[in-house]
Amino acid sequence: MTHAAKLESTRRIALLGAPIDMGASQRGTLMGPAALRTAGLSTLLESMDFDVTDYGDLTVAGMTDLADVPPQNAKHYREIQRWTRLLSRRGYEVAQTGAVPIFLGGDHSLSMGSVTAMARHWQELERPLFVLWLDAHADYNTPATTLTANMHGMAAAFLCGEGGLDGLLGEEVRSPIDPDRLELFGTRSIDKLEKDLLRTRRVSIADMRAIDEFGVSVLIRRVIDKVRSAKGVLHLSFDVDFLDPELAPGVGTTVPGGATYREAHLIMELLHDSGLVRSVDIVELNPFLDERGRTARTAVELIGSLFGQQITDRPTPSNAIVPGE
């Protein structure tokens, strides 16, 4: 690919809506994609000179079920299995075009498909994929450890190859990431058995205590340096409950003490400057719990910062034309 072609490809963004809400106990995130569009996500990105293709909301209607036996303690397994298979296939196809995929959720179970797609894509290009999990929760439960059986709390564990959901993709390619390449950030709610599993796997966790003590810039730069030293790329999985509930009330899993508006924007700005982010999830936005679209607007503003929107002009690093190349 020529330099000019690479520059052109970095200006292309693909939106894929995944209206899933059966992975969570609180219904309503199926309207998340519509809320993000209404809040002006495409308009903002286009105003920044990106070529945006919106593929609309994907649908699992007409997909045949697999014949595997659903595990115990995994609610709505069959429906989420359909979504995982679809997102894995469509996300991979979109990544192959060179566009930067943004998956609009939907609850966090959608990441089982989106990250699987990106892991397969980058494995073929011989680049390690790292995942930055901005979330109040670790989502590292399995059917054997979960207290709720809600599958949005098992997404990260599935992506790291933990057992219990082995048949979720059927015969489709599963390319699990190494637990060392999962970066939990902003975590402040972890179940006991989940914590034990995370400790055993030595998953990196920057909880709110660490953020208070060291600041987001130091901790995010550690992640960036780790990815860059491995010549890797980064998938950002952004759960809006990462933000403080005062800032983002439109979620069904609020946990006090989340990131502030300024902390969140700084994270996005530093990620943009790194040039490492090549795909994004926006998950757990529940418009039925929001206050006049405030959470949706905040999420869109943060995505703007991730893709280079600035309040004041400053020199842009040569490797940060856009999160992707």
CATH architecture: 3-Layer(aba) Sandwich
**Main sheet?**
8 strands, parallel
- Examine the coordinates and then state which fold CATH places here, giving the name of the CATH topology: Arginase, Chain A
Shape: globular
Could you provide a short overview of the structure?
With 325 residues, the protein is an alpha/beta fold. It has helices at 3-10, 32-38, 41-47, 77-96, 111-124, 155-159, 192-201, 208-214, 216-229, 261-274, 294-306; strands at 12-18, 51-57, 100-105, 129-134, 182-187, 204-207, 233-239, 277-283.
Structure description:
The structure is a single chain. The protein is an alpha/beta fold and 325 residues long. It has one domain (3-306): 3-Layer(aba) Sandwich (Arginase, Chain A), CATH 3.40.800.10. It has helices at residues 3-10, 32-38, 41-47, 77-96, 111-124, 155-159, 192-201, 208-214, 216-229, 261-274, 294-306, and strands at 12-18, 51-57, 100-105, 129-134, 182-187, 204-207, 233-239, 277-283. It has an 8-stranded parallel beta sheet, with helices on both faces. The longest helix is centred in the first third of the chain and has 20 residues, at 77-96. The radius of gyration is 18 Å and the shape is globular. The termini are close together. Mean pLDDT is 92; it is low at 1-9 and 318-325.
Give the helix/strand layout.
Elements (H helix, E strand, L loop, with lengths): L2 H8 L1 E7 L13 H7 L2 H7 L3 E7 L19 H20 L3 E6 L5 H14 L4 E6 L20 H5 L22 E6 L4 H10 L2 E4 H7 L1 H14 L3 E7 L21 H14 L2 E7 L10 H13 L19
Parallel strand pairs: 1-2, 1-3, 3-8, 4-5, 4-7, 5-6, 7-8
Helix pairs in contact: 2-11, 4-5, 8-9, 9-10, 10-11
